[in-house]
Structures are given as structure tokens and as C-alpha cells.
Design goal:
By secondary structure, this protein is mostly helical. Helix content is 64%, strand content 1%. Strands 1-2 form a two-stranded antiparallel sheet.
Length: 387
């Protein structure tokens, strides 16, 4: 576990540098390039900067909760890594092979959901204890957003549980290696989980809990120095955890590509079946590569899409994702009853639910609200559009 924490902290530090480089590339800039060759020492420079910053604590805050909140946010993000499988079995010379995993938990999926739900406590406590209206609004937004999007996330995960009949993450990976990737059977479930991941990690375009234009800094407005750094470290650690979780749940974990176990290629069979240390490194590299792709996608979306209003964010969850998730669970159950869960009917049902969800979301979009709703119609015909 100590080794994993060290690896995670290194990945988090350089994920921040990677985001700054991706941002610079998208904006036609160079990015950090002064601290070390090609800016590779920039994470260490940022860490020293945070350590040397003044640790200012306002006199009006609730000090115990004020100090506890960043610790909760960081700790919850870190402990989610414990059940992520980074490979299969490896023989290290002991009495029996071990898994490339900190803890092989029987209820790994439920553990991930429980740990993710605990993350809201750190944000709410940060907003409440700061005794600042902007921080309080940010904490309330974070609570409403995360609790709302956990419902469609749970429904998307339930689809996978129904299909595979497993709640252990390593068993779900092995099921996909024997059958096919879940993203091919349930693309809509993956899409729902991907959207909810943006909300759970407070990433743009769903970062309304800390939107600068409205709330200054949101729930961490009053924080500085290492207390503020813990929030950022927790955010990027959560981002890596969510990326690894999606790679495990829908993209076959350490399987290189779909149906690869059926090809009979010797080097692939060696990677999948050999319990040697080099094979375990190859499996880890495959999972890590998928995680990097997801992280790059999260970063690309951050600098591409605009931020919606908070009411639009909540309406999208309750009018779009939740009905789609419920319909998907019902159809998956019916397909299982008919022994057709792994047939072409599964992606077809996903496509039908997606079309119905888009239609319902369009029909339920309200008439123009606010000041414009009371203005006289143009040419006698009122206009309807999305907010």
C-alpha cells in the first residue's frame, strides 16, 4: 500500500503538469518549460511553492471542521485505489500467487460507490466551516450535484452487475476476457457513467461548485497553502481512480483489445496467462495506458466545452440520465430473462433508450424563462428552445 501511495502521488503530480501542457497545446502556447528540462521539475516547484505559502486561517471559521475538510477530501480520493485491479495473478515466490491489487474485496463495486459517496463530506464541511457565503453556496452545490449524479452512476453500474453477475472488479475483467467488453454490449451505460464521472470529480463542464465567475473559488475560497493543495491533490487522485474504474468496468482491464483471447497469439496468451513478473508488468502497462487515455479525454473536454447553468445541470441528471438509466436496467433484465444479454439486441436496446432519452429531454425542455418569458411574442408566435 505504501508503494501504491507513492506511485499515486507521483502520477497526481505529473497529471497536473500534463493538464497544463494539454491546456497550452490547445491554446497554442508552450506551457511550463522553466523548471528543469522541458518543465519536468514543475510539480516539485509547485510543491515547494505551496509549502512556503502563508498558511492563513480566517478568524471566523470553525477550526476543527475547517482543518478536517481537506483531509477528508484527500483521503477519500486515495483509498479508492485499494480495490482497482492492475493485473492478474503474479508468482513472487510465495506459497501462492498474489494479485496486482492492494485488496481483493468481495464487494469491490459497492466499495467504490461507498468511497465515492463519502467525498461529498469534505466539500460540504469545507463550505460550511469557512463561514463564507460563497464557500457555503459552493458546498451546497457540490452536495446537490454529487448526490444527484450518483443515482444514474449506480444504475449504469447495475447494468454491468446484471450482465456479468459479479461485483468483484477482477472477476468482471475476467468475464470480459471470456466474452466481450461491456462497452460493446452497453455503450449507453458507459456514456452515462462517463458523464456522471465529470460531475463526481467536479471537472469542467460540471465544476459549478467552484465556478470563479459566480463563487470566487467555491468551497475552497478561504483555503491557502497546503490545505488548498490537498483539495487539488484529491481532485486529481479521484480523476485517476475514476479513469481506472471505467477502464476496468467497460474496457476489459488488462485485455489489450476485444476478443484478443480468442486469437491464439502466443505473446498475448503469455501476457494473459503467465504468472511471471514481466507479464504482470505488461498487464499493468495495458491498464495504465487506458487510464492515460481517459485522463487526456477529461483534460480535452475541460478546455473544449462551456459550463452550463446549475439548473441545467440538475435537469440533465433528473430528466435525462435517471430515466435512461432506469430504462436500461429494465431492458437488460428482460434480455437476461430471454438469455439474450450478450446478443446484438443489447446494443440495439441501448440505442433505443438513447433515442428515447434525447426525445424526452427535448420535449421536457421548458419555454424560455426569466425576463424574456414575459416579453411579447415575435410576430405572434412564441419561441421554444433549450435553456
Amino acid at each position: 500500500m505504501v508503494v501504491l501511495i507513492g506511485i499515486i502521488m507521483g502520477c497526481v503530480a505529473y497529471a497536473i503538469l500534463l493538464e497544463r501542457k494539454v491546456c497550452a497545446w490547445l491554446q497554442d502556447r508552450v506551457g511550463p518549460n522553466r523548471a528543469g528540462p522541458l518543465g519536468l521539475l514543475q510539480p516539485m516547484a509547485d510543491g515547494v511553492k505551496f509549502l512556503l505559502k502563508e498558511d492563513f486561517t480566517p478568524g471566523t471559521v470553525d477550526r476543527p471542521l475547517f482543518f478536517l475538510a481537506p483531509c477528508i477530501a484527500f483521503t477519500v480520493a486515495m483509498i479508492g485505489f485499494a480495490v482497482i485491479p492492475w493485473g492478474g495473478l503474479v508468482d513472487l515466490g510465495g506459497p501462492e500467487p498474489v494479485r496486482v491489487q492492494v485488496a481483493s474485496v468481495d464487494i469491490g463495486l459497492l466499495y467504490i460507490l461507498a468511497v465515492g459517496a463519502m467525498g461529498v463530506y469534505g466539500l460540504v464541511l469545507a463550505g460550511w466551516s469557512s463561514n463564507n457565503k460563497f464557500s457555503f453556496y459552493g458546498g451546497m452545490r457540490a452536495a446537490a450535484q454529487m448526490l444527484s449524479y450518483e443515482i444514474p452512476m449506480g444504475l449504469a453500474i447495475l447494468v454491468v452487475v446484471l450482465t456479468t453477475g459479479q461485483v468483484r472488479l477482477e472477476n468482471i475483467v475476467e468475464y470480459q476476457m471470456q466474452s466481450t467488453w461491456n462497452v460493446l454490449l452497453h455503450p449507453l451505460a458507459f456514456l452515462i457513467l462517463l458523464v456522471t464521472a465529470f460531475a463526481e470529480t467536479n471537472r469542467l463542464p460540471f465544476d459549478l461548485a467552484e465556478s470563479e465567475q459566480e463563487l470566487i473559488g467555491g468551497y475552497h475560497t478561504e483555503y491557502s497553502s497546503m490545505k488548498m493543495a490537498l483539495f487539488f491533490l484529491g481532485e486529481y487522485a479521484h480523476l485517476i481512480t475514476v479513469s481506472a474504474f471505467m477502464a476496468t468496468l467497460f474496457f476489459g482491464g488488462w485485455e489489450l483489445f476485444p476478443f484478443s483471447t480468442r486469437l491464439g497469439w502466443g505473446w498475448l496468451d503469455w501476457i494473459y496467462k503467465s504468472q511471471t513478473f514481466p507479464a504482470a508488468l505488461c498487464q499493468f502497462a495495458i491498464v495504465f495506458g487506458k487510464v492515460v487515455v481517459f485522463i487526456l479525454f477529461f483534460m480535452w473536454v475541460r478546455w473544449t466545452l462551456v459550463r452550463p447553468r446549475f439548473d441545467q445541470l440538475m435537469r440533465f441528471a433528473w430528466n435525462g440520465l435517471v430515466p435512461a438509466g432506469i430504462a436500461l436496467v429494465i431492458l437488460t433484465s428482460l434480455l437476461l430473462y430471454k438469455n439474450a444479454a450478450e446478443s446484438i439486441w443489447s446494443p440495439l436496446c441501448n440505442a433505443a433508450v438513447f433515442a428515447a432519452a434525447v426525445l424526452r429531454f427535448y420535449v421536457s425542455s421548458p419555454v424560455i424563462t426569466g425576463r424574456q418569458a414575459h416579453m411579447p411574442p415575435i410576430n405572434g408566435s412564441p419561441t421554444r428552445r433549450f435553456e
